[in-house]
Amino acid sequence: MSDNRPVVAVVGRPNVGKSTLFNKLAGKRISIVEDTPGVTRDRIFTEVEWLNHYFTLIDTGGIEPDNGDIILSHMRNQAMLAMDMAHIILFVVDGKSGLTAADREVAQILRKTKKPVILVVNKIDSQSQFDNVYDFYELGLGVPFAISSANSMGLGDLLDEVVQNFPEGLNTEYDEDIIRVAITGKPNAGKSSILNNILGEERVIVSPIAGTTRDAVDTYVEKNGQKFLLIDTAGLRRKSKIYETVEKYSVIRSMAAVDRADVVLIVIDAKEGITEQDTKVAGIAHDEGKACVFVINKWDLIEKDNKTLGNYTKDVKEKFPFMMYAPVIFVSAKTNQRMNKILETVEYVASEHAKRVSTSALNDVIGEAVMLNQPPSDKGKRLKIYYGSQTGVKPPKFTLFINDKNLTHFSYQRYLENKIRENFGFEGTPVQFEYREKNRK
């Protein structure tokens, strides 16, 4: 992990309550929790704080050592990767169903890691069930911690043990200097492939099966001294296709990922073109005031002439007229074409998203704009703009002090926005306006 933070992986066979434990420790609902084995299929990352110690927690797909199913074998690989990355492993077992052959096999895998393993016996909901814990001593992984994730019992003692096992020399303090990036788009647009390409390792399951990535996955990466938190999301789907509650959670999570992000990558399949769902996620990102970049993936599959790129860019701008500010980049995760542009563009639009301009420079631009094109009037009364001030960032927000809010018009606001962009940039970010009536004496 590039931010040198302690990493704790939650592993175990399916359906022992790993995701419930993960959500309790994270303090919010992040992992999908459902009584279906194999629901958590990718590694899920979150930051956890305990007594001023910060660490990264990873939830993994359940390990099923002898199952040949394609998704389950992927899950097993993901758990292995998580264990490779982790400094500490929480091995979760089910105190209600008791010790199983699969638990013994998982324990054997974990012993080979030579890393601190904390044995967590979950679903011990009452004192009468405590005798179930003793069976797990047989695994030879030390004293088991009896907990109930559902009832939040025993979690404090468990976290104390986790913190005590942190290796020396790691950074457990909070770091705000991170650009948070949501990778969004339709299923199979290549979001996971883009993430894997950026990371240079297979961090997220990539599969031709649509909807393979069901959870949002947080991954840290550092480039040229800048830290990024990449959130790979489950793609937004048409509501009519959401048959399972699992899919419903995933759609909600895509929206939540946009909410957490500073920059939203809207990944579009070059071959399929812009879809209704792309329009939807772009609209959400714009309304939430997020910096945005259109990433046209699978560009290697398009037959091109010298007009193809220009025409495609024009088409994107026409389909998203409210987002003329968003850059459009053309990449191929498969062939590595222009992939280096993604984080460069993210860093640039993040700086624009956080940009401030001076009040005097802003008012010079507004004054010149008003001289060139008079504000609208209604029944002989004209809008007067006394002065403006930038009152926010992420996104940039401008407050204009005026004579009468009823005289404001969207078209004139768009004109002012264009003038502000011509002079100050703000590429990749929406800008917002607020009007205040100035009481004259």
Automatic annotation (TrEMBL):
Keywords attached to this entry: GTP-binding, Nucleotide-binding, Repeat, Ribosome biogenesis
One example GO MF annotation: GTP binding
One Pfam family hit: MMR_HSR1
KW Metal-binding (keyword) present: no
SUPFAM superfamilies xref list: P-loop containing nucleoside triphosphate hydrolases
CDD domains xref list: EngA1 (cd01894), EngA2 (cd01895)
Binding site for GTP 1: 12-19, 59-63, 122-125
Domain of life of the native organism: Bacteria
GO BP annotation list: ribosome biogenesis
UniProt-listed InterPro entries: G_ENGA, GTP-bd, GTPase_Der, KH_dom-like, KH_dom-like_a/b, P-loop_NTPase, Small_GTP-bd
Residues that hold GTP 2 according to the record: 185-192, 232-236, 297-300
Domain EngA-type G: 6-170, 179-354
Subunit structure, as described in the record: Associates with the 50S ribosomal subunit.
UniProt function note: GTPase that plays an essential role in the late steps of ribosome biogenesis.
HAMAP family: GTPase_Der
Family membership: Belongs to the TRAFAC class TrmE-Era-EngA-EngB-Septin-like GTPase superfamily. EngA (Der) GTPase family.
Annotated protein name in UniProt: GTPase Der
Natural source organism: Romboutsia ilealis
